[in-house]
Amino acid sequence: MNLPNKLTISRIILTFLFMFFLFSKGILMKFFALVTFLTASATDYYDGKIARERNETTDFGRFMDPIADKFLTIAAFLVFVEMGLVPAWMVALIISRELIITGLRLFASTKGRVLQAEAAGKHKTVSQITAITVILVFIFLRDAGMKLFSIWSNSLEYWFRQVIFILMIITVALTLISGLSYLWKNRRLFLNAKENH
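Now predict its structure.
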């Protein structure tokens, strides 16, 4: 297994570590959750960069890279719903999009095709990572502000939550737009499947 693929697999492993820290109590654990998430997100950038520079792109990498992304981001969003930080309907839309596109990828693989991530999908991923990072910073600052410095206030929390909501609206919009774009560009897969039946 080459280095880019190892980085992709490491992102899945780091997701479990990230979840452990996020569910653990204590300010330090929340800080570790933030650092682990940022580290996992960095592997998304470097696995593709290294694969292109070394000409080590593989079908495994093209297929697993976006799945590892989805695993990381969906895990985070589900926890945020549980924490009451993100509306469930937003995450439901995000998960629906990801499941549909993953299903399309699996269907394409049965036809001997590997569908690569597109620019719109990358923009979607960046928006999701940005939103998750801001929420993790919020969780850490809230816990640190309340427990260490006693400077957290209802007003500060209100404005932080407003920023989070706006970021999530943007994220959901980009997620749906990228999904529709992906379906449209690969519509021939469905058309060919119908013709074969």
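The CA atoms of residues 15 and 72 lie 5 Å apart.
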